[in-house]
Amino acid sequence: MTRSRTVALVGNPNAGKSALFNALTGARQKIANYPGVTVERKAGRLTLPSGEPVELIDLPGSYSLDASSPDEEVTRRFVLGEFEGEAKPEVIVLVLDAANLEQHLVFAQEIIALGRPVVVALNMIDLAERDGLVLDPDALSSSLGVPVVATVAVRRKGLVELAQAIADAEHRFDDHPDAEPQPHLTLPERRLAARNIAKAAILSESKGRRLHAGLDKVLLNPWIGPFILFAILFVVFQAVFAWADPFIGLIEGATEWLAGIVASSLPDGIVRDFITEGVIAGVGSVVVFLPQIVILFAFILVMEATGYMARAAFLMDRLMAGVGLSGRSFIPLLSSFACAIPGIMATRSIADPKDRLTTILIAPMMTCSARLPVYAVIIAAVIPATTVGPGIGLQGLVLFALYIAGILGALVVALVLRRSVTKGGASGFIMELPRYQLPRLKDLAIGLWQRAWVFLRRAGTIIFAATVILWLLLTFPKANEGESQLDASFAGQIATAMQPVFEPVGFNREMTLALVPAMAAREVAVSSLATTYAIDDDGSEEQTEAALRDQIAARWSLPTALAFLAWFVFAPQCLSTIAVARRETNGWKWPSFMLAYLFALAYVFAGITYWAAIALGL
Ligand SMILES: Nc1nc2c(ncn2[C@@H]2O[C@H](COP(=O)(O)OP(=O)(O)OP(=O)(O)O)[C@@H](O)[C@H]2O)c(=O)[nH]1
Ligand SMILES: [Mg+2]
User: Fold this and answer.
1) Quick one: 168 and 236 in the same domain?
2) Residue 429's closest CA among 518, 325, 499?
3) Which PROSITE patterns does the entry mention (predicted)?
4) Which of 414, 413, 403 is nearest to 230 (CA)?
5) pLDDT band at 92, cuts 50/70/90?
6) What is the extent of the structural domain holding 455?
């Protein structure tokens, strides 16, 4: 009995092997637009044009014959005939993605060098053409020394030609069975050769595609790429301070004007106090940060729209793998820079439950936009607006450092969690990179408007409510003659009771007090301080963000202010985040864990910052 001959489909992940397999055999293998779909070999029957049946084997995608993962191992063993009782495949069909030819040629050379009969299926030529790339299969064939057939697996194009080439390859090899394996090339040598072969196969390439390829070469370069990303982020945080000032001035002017009108038109009394100290000082002190939030999001939206953000994710993938997370966690973590709530919801796209849990647990450490007002007001108050280099403002630098502190903290925590409570292997991830595009002004405007609206709505609802409650607690009971209102009030009493806990990390009583309403939303810390100082400082007529800044500058020492900033890098100051974490993890166990470890981190880091600053004589 003669065993039917076998033909194997080999190539990089996502080249379209399974799609070709299905088209050639009528099978229904799972295909999908991401690498690593096929993880086992699957056999089917292919009838050659001569009517002769052969066994076609679909193999997992692979980057190299030096297998690193179990699925790649299957491919290697099959191609080299290492499976017990199975012969080597008679013909290897090497499936290449025409749109990513250079990358795919790296592995292709390794296969061709085996000296076995090979037919190249130059697949996805439709995508290449869509991108403005016209390839010459004959040129490719003469560089590689094997037949090349252009195919579009999903549209059944080139299938007959491919089957014929398979039949021919078999016979040609039967005639010259003595083909010698070629000398082994190292990976860098194969990379270089891949570039030259790919270049030689290009008939024409549109200007746009060349530009995009050139951009990617720079932006995704393993050395230059991260540097550029870092530089861009650096500029963003500089801009948040440098560009916002005139706009902040406008809003401040408007608040002052409003406060003036209220002060002169309302009679002295509780209503006037409520409006000036509670609403205008409290809510107004938060609204003033709108320009900074808009600037931050303008940058983020532009990076998303141009396709740069996906490249940033790609660059971060290796870093993420280093701490046991996959690049899949990047997008959820990135959304957490706006707010941890959508970020935690976005983790639903992470298949591995432990990957997902780890991502949820660290998401609150990404600096959400609610922290920006807190950071901004304290930085403006205690960090001098000097420059530390050409065009580098110290305030922007400190803000940048706070964002980095949150990211580093998250990475370290992920590393620890992945070795302890959420132990497990990291899953690989390679993402499709979208094409570069110029952002559309209209989309940008809509995106910014949405962000601004979310922020203003928060100011009008949750921040307003928390400020009003705090104002009531600060205003009653009324102080006796000679007593300070802060000491006498309910809020003051609460703060005094909590103070022993926070005294060791350098917090003063107003800061301690601000922590409580800030559980509703972090920005409330700002409005709370503003209201507290407005009530405490009855002499002043000015009750704006500028006044708050002056109060902080006058009353807080630098170590105290830095400790407060360090606290907010980590503290899980937001009940809605905890509630979402509960919903997404189906229970209180993980949210409680999250609360506990984040508060502990916040406390420890505030303390370290405070005492280190004192030791440094700041
Ligand atoms: N436009 C176009 N899409 C294709 C073509 N061939 C495959 N695809 C698509 O490319 C994606 C990947 O195809 P698969 O067949 O799963 O790729 P694979 O090589 O088996 O990938 P792994 O199993 O992960 O190694 C799927 O979304 C296919 O629909 C083609 O010629 N043209
Ligand atoms: Mg497959």
Assistant:
1) no
2) 325
3) G_FEOB (PS51711)
4) 403
5) very high
6) 224-423+440-616
Ligand nearest 11 Cα, by number? Answer: 1
Q: Which ligand 1 atom is nearest residue 127's CA?
A: 1
11 and 130 inside one domain = yes
Say yes or no: 104 and 185 in one domain: yes
Note the ipTM here.
Answer: 0.98
Distance 21 CA to ligand 2 centre (A): 8
Arithmetic mean of pLDDT, 167-178? 69
Percent of the chain with pLDDT over 70: 92
Q: Report pLDDT digits (tens) over 408-466.
A: 999 999 999 998 888 876 555 545 577 788 888 888 898 889 888 888 888 888 888 88
Nearest CA to ligand 1 atom 7: 16
Q: Compute, in angstroms, the gap from residue 226 CA to the centroid of ligand 2.
A: 32
In this prediction, residues 305-319 reach a mean pLDDT of 81
Instruction: List the beta strands (DSSP E) in 60-142.
Output: 91-97, 118-123, 133-135
Which residues surround ligand 1 with Cβ inside 6 Å? Answer: 11, 13-19, 31-33, 35-38, 60-61, 123-124, 126-127, 152-154
Nearest-ligand number for the alpha carbon of 97: 1
Of the candidates 261, 269, 255, 264, which has an alpha carbon nearest to the alpha carbon of residue 475?
A: 269
Phi, psi of 41 (to 5 degrees): -80, 145
User: How many angstroms is it from 159 CA to the middle of ligand 1?
Assistant: 15
The per-residue pLDDT of the chain, averaged, comes to: 85
In single-letter form, the type of residue at position 166 comes to I
Most confident range (mean pLDDT) of 80-89, 360-369, 476-485 is: 360-369
> What atom in ligand 1 is closest to the CA of residue 38?
23
Q: How far is CA 145 from CA 113, 178, 197, in A?
A: 10, 16, 11
CA nearest neighbour of 195 among 101, 62, 95: 101
132, part of any domain: yes
Percent of the chain whose pLDDT exceeds 90 = 31
What is the band of 1 on the pLDDT scale with cuts at 50, 70, 90? Answer: very low
Q: Ligand 2 center to residue 43 CA distance, Å? A: 12
Strands 118-123 and 91-97: parallel
What separation in Å is there between the alpha carbon of 44 and the centre of ligand 2?
13
The domain that holds 150 is classified in CATH as 3.40.50.300
Both structure tokens of 464: 């307003």
What is the pTM (predicted TM-score) of this model? 0.64
Q: Is residue 310 domain-resident?
A: yes
155 shares a domain with 267: no
Same domain? For 134 and 66 the reply is yes
**Separation CA 333–CA 335 (nearest Å):** 5
Enter the tokens of residue 528: 């709370």
Give CA separation, 388 vs 240, 381, 398, 405, 617, in Å.
17, 18, 11, 20, 20
Nearest to 211 by CA among 127, 307, 96, 106: 307
Q: How many angstroms separate the CA atoms of 437 and 65, rounded?
A: 36
Ion ligand 2: residues, CB < 5 A: 17-18, 37-38
What is the DSSP track for 131-193? TTEEE-HHHHHHHHTS-EEE-BGGGTBTHHHHHHHHHHHHHHHHH-TTPPPPPPPPHHHHHHH
